[in-house]
Structure formats: structure tokens, C-alpha cells
Amino acid sequence: MQVKPTLNPDVIIVGAGPVGLALAIELGQRNISCVILEKNERVGYAPRAKTTNARTREHFRRWGIAQNLRKASPLGMDYPSNVVFCTRLSGFELMRFENAFYCAPGRNPLYSEHSQWIPQYTVEEVMRSHVSTLPSVQMLFNTEVLQVSQQADQVQLVAHTKSNQSTFQLASKFLIGADGSKSKIREEIGAKMEGIHSLSKNYNIVFKAPGLEKAHLLGPAIMYWQVNPDAPGLIGPMDQDKWFFMPTGVPKEAKFDLSSSTELIKKSTGINLPYEVLSSDEWIASRLIATSYQNRRIFLAGDACHLHPPFGGYGMNMGIADAVDLGWKIAANLQGWGGPLLLDSYEIERRQVHDLVMNEAVVNHGVLGNQLWVDGLEDQTIVGAELRKQVGQRIEITKLREFSTLGIILGYRYEHSPVIVDDHQSYPPIDFINYVPSSRPGCLAPHAWMHDGSSLYDHFGMGYTLICFNKDSIYLYEFLQLAQHMCIPLKMISPIEPGISQLYQKQLTIIRPDQHIAWQGDDLPKNPQMLLKHITGQQ
Fold this sequence. Notes:
This protein is of the alpha/beta class. Among the domains are: 11-65 and 116-192 and 291-363, FAD/NAD(P)-binding domain (3-Layer(bba) Sandwich); 413-535, Glutaredoxin (3-Layer(aba) Sandwich). 29% of the residues lie in helices and 23% in strands. It has 14 helices and 23 strands. Helix 1 (18-28) packs parallel to helix 4, helix 1 (18-28) packs parallel to helix 7 (315-334) and helix 7 (315-334) packs antiparallel against helix 8 (340-365). The chain is globular, with a radius of gyration of 24 Å. Mean pLDDT is 92; it is low at 1-6.
């Protein structure tokens, strides 16, 4: 399908990975017209991300497709979410983390959705299917951006569609580059990636191995860290017969084709099976962040503006969080109630989260399988057993935070944002493992379960939500009418469940569309109009 120049959307999204699709969902569910351009088919089994964390699944719940993702799980939701450290699949167990990444099914008071171990290509299928139901969104694959330019009131783009060898033009009010680490859009706006290049060289290998799960005695797990001198690395199931393998400590001069990848898997696992390698892709671990996320009407999101090692499962999830933050703000601007400071707040809010998460990912990258090896670890002797015990203790100390990340994925906050009213109270200290809910403005709204089994989050609106524990005041209804007059979407809820008022501490709390807290107080301010202008970026 060719997009005609006359069908100019409000937003152009470049890149149809999870970040671009998340943006399309945020915009499309608000009836904002947008076109997604993707230069590839987005097919294949490259491992990419495998953990959809609790916060991302909460967004899927908000979009109404969390159940779709649950049903799409190739391994089943009850598959044990263990991470096992071993010398090799045929060797000795060193340490085991249970319920890694919080994937175990079950209700938790701290979040509405548990994490899910699911390959990224399946996540994308679920998201694409949902996007296809949104009338205001078009997707174009095999379409490459050739040129981008900006005017005062629009962005113009020239693109080429490979399928019919046609070139066409589009114009939009905004353009978002969600086009990955080699972003064309980042290049177009003149942003540079700064930081630490080439922390390590790595390979992602995807292979079929019928019978591998039953060929070892370590039990089912989502990931096995193999610590051996031959081919240390990570290995784990993606679906019923597909596995991923990521060797660590790869020499810079190494090159793996399909044949050598097969031999590497055999060395690493110690199990001789008829492995069928499907892909072998090289990648470089770095810690990089863009000098700017925005140039007037053009924005960057996901890998286009930040890159870091994948250890901790942050990458795709952080990109989707970018899309959520940016998506509702652009929609608010297009709908007339979001001011310029709302758009400016995107980089201010997300950059601090990126720095936090990237630093944590680099810490996790510092201890890999090749760093854990000691001579004699595989010896079937008393000395070997003692070495395995010592290495297991080191693993427990150094790797726990990689698989117990709730303090990061729920505990990050937006400090110094121009659209959050600072109450000058102290934030809870950052704890990478433990999450302490806080109603401090900028934090994620504390979660609670309702008496009917629903989540408190289920009662939030598409716009702002006012949580009120004293709804008798006449001024509250005047406040709601004022918001309506200013065309600001605002609904009020008054939870009666015991304990929720203690979680929120104040009588009044305003929740943003992304479920972060914008303002708190026991009474409305003397000038409520100024409050509404503040949180919507109008001043």
C-alpha cells in the first residue's frame, strides 16, 4: 500500500519495533492519525529481548491486551522462571535464582501484572495485531526514509518503498525516530551518541535443539549461565524447540558462521545433539546516550537515543516506557490541552531514567560467565566441590540484583520535571532490588487491589485521574468543571478500600495518563487554574 501525500498524518513513526508500535498504540487509542514506516519486514527469530517486565505488562493491561500477551506465551505462563548458573548443561549446578524478573504467575500487592518470559518477536506480533485494529494508524513495511526536513509547523519526509520501487512524500506535525541503534532520524537531527563504546563483543545465536530440555538434569529454567573455559555464555529456551545462545568473553577477532556456532554450542553445553543454527548475529555492548532527544518537532525514542548491555532485561522495556511518556504528551499537544513544556519534559524525565538504568546494566555486565570461571571448577573432587561452593556464593552476591529488579522497574521517578509539582519532600532512597511505593509527585502511583478483584490502575482514566478521599467539598466539582472548560481530560475516583488512603497519605492526588503522580495535597490550591496549567505544560 502506498500512502498518498494528501493523506498526511499527525505523526510519523520511523521504526516498527516494540517502541514504534507502543507509540502507535498510545496515539491510535487517542484517535491520533499516524503512519509507521519500517525499512524491514520485522520477521525472523533474532533473540533480542526475552523479558517483558511487570511495568511493561501494566501498559499492556492499560491498552487492553495483557491477556493477548499471556495467551501468546510459547512456553506457557507456568513455566518455571528460574535462572540457573552451572558449569555447563551437562555439568554442575553452581547457583539458582527462582522467580527471576518476577515472572511467576500470581497476584502481588505491588503491581497489577507480573513479568513474562516471552521472545520479542512474539511480543511484536501481539502489538502489531492490536495496532491493525486502530483505524487512525497505518503500517508500511519495506519502506526506507531517504530525507527529512522541518518547517515551523510541520515535518516533511521523503521515503522509498522497496516492494513497488516507489518514492513518496509525507508531511506531519511530529516525527518520532524509533529506528534503533543505527537511527537515520538521529543522524538527521544532528544528535550524537556519547559514552563508552565497545564494552564487549557478543553474538546472538538462535538454534533448534529438539530434546535438549530433557538431555540435562538441571530442570526447566528460562536461562542457564554456563561457566566454563571452552565457551562460557547464556543459553535458554525461546519456545518449544528454539533456544538462544549468547557466548560471553568473545575475542574481538572471532567470527562465527552457522557451522562454527554449532560447534560452540556443543562445547558450551557438553551435550552432542543435532543442533540446527537458525541465525548468528554479532553485536557490540556499549553504554551510549544521545546528546539530544529532540530537535523542534522531531523526537527520538528507544535504542535511537540510548544503548546499554542487555543484562537485567531493561532494553525493550525502557524503550516502551519512552513511547508511553512521549505518546500521551504528543497526543495532548495535538488535542490542544498539552502545552510546550509538556513536550520539553520528555527528555528531562526520560534521560534521568536512562542514566540510572544504563549504569545498572553496566554493573551487571561487569560479572559474566568468563569472569566467574576458576581452574578446577569442574573437577569431581573435594577441592572442586569447595570451589563450586565459593563461586556459587560469589554469584549470589554479585548477580542477585540482575534478576531482582523491582526497585528499578517500579521505583524510578521523574525529578525536576517542569510538569510535576514538587512538594519538596524527600524521595525514598533508590534500592535496585526492593521497591518502596511512594506518593511523592514524580513517582509511580502506588498500586492496590480493589474489593472486586480489579486493580486500582484499572480505574484510572485515559487522561488525568484525581484520587479523592474527601469528596464532600464543593470545590472539587468546580475543579472538575474547570478542567472540562480547559479541555483537560480529568476524572475523579474515591476508593473506599482500607489501606489505600494510607498509601497515598494526602486527601488529593492527581495521576497522569502514564500513572505517575503529577500533584498531591490535602486541599486544592488557591488558584486551581494555575495547577492545571502547570501539570499540562501550559506555563
